[in-house]
Design goal:
Helices cover 16% and strands 25% of the residues. The chain has 266 residues and is of the alpha/beta class.
Length: 266
């Protein structure tokens, strides 16, 4: 049987795996699924059609799965799907999707959401993502693997943050941040590549050198964006890391691409 504290409220219909732990004063709604070894430490409220993956830990006063903060939401049966081995700290909020965004908010595996972080409706958060204290991502945001969003930062709706990107603290992100990029500022500007993160994750010196060269070419003043993308794509057609940036910048997006600050050329 799952370990459920006597003071917790688990509504009929909730699916609780045998290895789950529900601590004092938690409230679990009727459409919630808690899989193996999920731990709700205390005072956690989980509502809606929410599924929590195995091994995820949720800390006190987190509010998970309540209706999205979107005036267009009319009670449609949307979902929140949280992956495995995530750490969701105190006062974190996560909302399900909406009809206008595919009906699902999805969080990957092995992520860390620090105190007060917010994941809005229809967001798609990949594996190994970190949202630091009080970082907030608005609706329909897409965040790639191993990206980090610094404390007190805010990401505007429909924005993309590429894999391995680093967003500095207190940054307002209103344009797409390229994979491997580093951005900061009251309105985000690129400050180069996330070199420290790339080294920590074992990228080779050759890959990092190629990325730095491609970065300078892609954001050079000469030529148009289309011309620069074509040139870099031809030059690095056999380099997957560079081509990931080329593909990211070439794809359709309601936001533009975050540009380098003139004083920060990588």
């Amino acid at each position: 049987m799952p370990d459920i504290h006597p003071s917790a409220i688990v509504e009929p219909g909730a699916e609780i795996a045998e290895g789950a732990v529900i601590g004092p004063y938690c409230v679990v709604g009727p459409d919630v699924v808690l899989t193996d070894k999920v731990v709700l430490h205390a005072h956690v409220v989980i509502a809606g059609r929410t599924r929590i993956g195995a091994g995820t830990q949720i800390y006190p006063f987190a509010s998970i799965g309540h209706p999205p903060q979107d005036l267009k939401y009319k009670g449609e049966p949307s979902e929140l799907v949280v992956g495995e081995r995530n750490i969701i700290r105190e006062h974190v909020t996560m909302n399900p999707g909406t009809e206008g965004g595919g009906m699902v908010t999805r969080v990957g595996n092995d992520c860390l959401f620090m105190t007060g972080a917010h994941v809005a409706h229809d967001c798609q958060v990949a594996d190994h993502v970190i949202l630091a204290n009080n970082a907030a991502i608005a609706g329909h945001v897409v965040i790639g693997e191993h990206a980090i969003v610094g404390g007190l930062s805010a990401v505007q709706q429909f924005t993309r943050i590429g894999r391995h990107a680093m967003i500095g603290g207190m940054t307002g992100v209103d344009q797409d941040v390229i994979p491997y990029g580093s951005a900061m500022g009251d309105r985000a500007r690129l400050s180069g590549l996330n070199i420290i993160g790339l080294k920590r994750r074992g990228f080779s010196r050759d890959d990092i050198h190629a990325l730095r060269t491609a970065y300078r070419l892609l954001f050079a003043e000469e030529g148009t964006k289309i011309e620069r993308l074509a040139d870099v794509g031809e030059m690095y057609s056999d380099n997957d890391t560079v081509m990931e940036i080329v593909g990211f910048m070439s794809s359709d997006s309601p936001r533009g691409i975050c540009q380098p600050h003139p004083d920060h050329q990588d």
